[in-house]
Amino acid sequence: MDKFVIHGGKELNGTVEISGAKNATLALMPAALLASGESVLYNTPELNDVFTMSKLLKQLGAEIQFENQVLKINSATVNNQIAPYEHVKKMRASVYVLGPLLTRYGFAKVSLPGGCAWGPRPINLHLEGLKKLGAEIELDEGYIIVKAKRLQGAKINFDKSSVGATGNILMASVLAKGTTVINNAAMEPEITNLVNFLLKMGAKIYGINTSILEIEGVDELHPAEIETIPDRIEAGTFLIAAAITKGNILIRGGIDAHLYAVLSKLEDAGMHIDVIGNDIRIDAQNIEPKSIDVSTGIFPGFPTDMQAQWLALMSVADSVSTVTDTIYTDRFSHVPELIRLGADISVQENNALIKGVKKLKGAKVMSTDLRASASLVLAGLVAEGVTEVLRVYHLDRGYQRLEEKLRQLGANIDRVAGQEF
Ligand code: UD1
Prior knowledge:
31% helix; binds uridine-diphosphate-N-acetylglucosamine; alpha/beta; 14 helices
């Protein structure tokens, strides 16, 4: 297991290129199973989660080629509909293969994902939706087994907006017989990217970018090509890297409309933001961040995937702020680690109360999940002395060469390989 060693205190300046969005790619890849032949995904990030999904698709029989961020998936050779525990336990998004496999082959057996570092993450909405489309569902020895001759369109109402359930039901319904309506569908940009891919494959979907999606099932789809959107969470993480180190960074390829809530909170915190075409400049030089309250919400609200990074920034802000996570109510495993670096944070239920401190001080800290790791790196960039962030394999799931990109901006950060911690 690798660790990062960070000598804090360097101001970050320069330009950073944003990679393709992890959460978009993880939906686009299984969507390629819906048509026989080779689909091509451009701007695919080189991340461990993408490698895990590739292994899973290969296990199902697909052929994968991945070079220079171009991912080719040939699904003509798919001959197996079982997603084993060894893949699903590494990455919950593996559950995305459920909808495509079921609708295309009439059968799928997918390991139940289980818990996660920040508590239970149910998939009841995915299963209830598939049931409405006519699937028979059985749970056996830790596996979900779904069967259907041909799915039938239905009206599906999600009590909660769910990215994963919307993606899964969308993929299942495009080949169903008749019309499906998804009410309270997720509107995250990654879902829009998926809808655009499905449209290119010949699907009939109405209501793109809204919370009511109507899908007219078709008999067959064809392979297609799609460009993955930029990763708004990676872009957001670099915005905070600039803010926390009082630097000045040009974020290339970030889409400001995907980051509106984060950009507006950064402006509230005193940062200067400029949108120049597809680029975003943040100037935080000589700016003491102000303490600003944040509550996470579904898109276009403040993303839960930026909560941990925001908390790191608020740890060194000028006064007192609160951070509330309404999506994942116990997603605060980064707090005890930030406290080890000198932050003053207390958590009650889904609220963190942060009293800004003048300085953080380097220490050894442990990554517990992907975004928690990012918040520790951000805190390490500003902490006095040396911070060691252990177990960065969490971070490698979702950031493409984070330490290299940070180093190019002037950070003193090194990866130390192969340590046992
Ligand atoms: C996706 C993202 C993840 C992000 C999350 C919320 C991917 C691969 N992951 O996860 O990075 O943090 O969206 O933006 O895209 N829920 C249920 N039942 C379900 C499904 C979800 O109760 O069947 C609840 C969850 O517990 C959570 C809320 O709905 O409280 C939203 O979760 P959801 O949008 O489904 O998250 P994921 O798709 O798993």
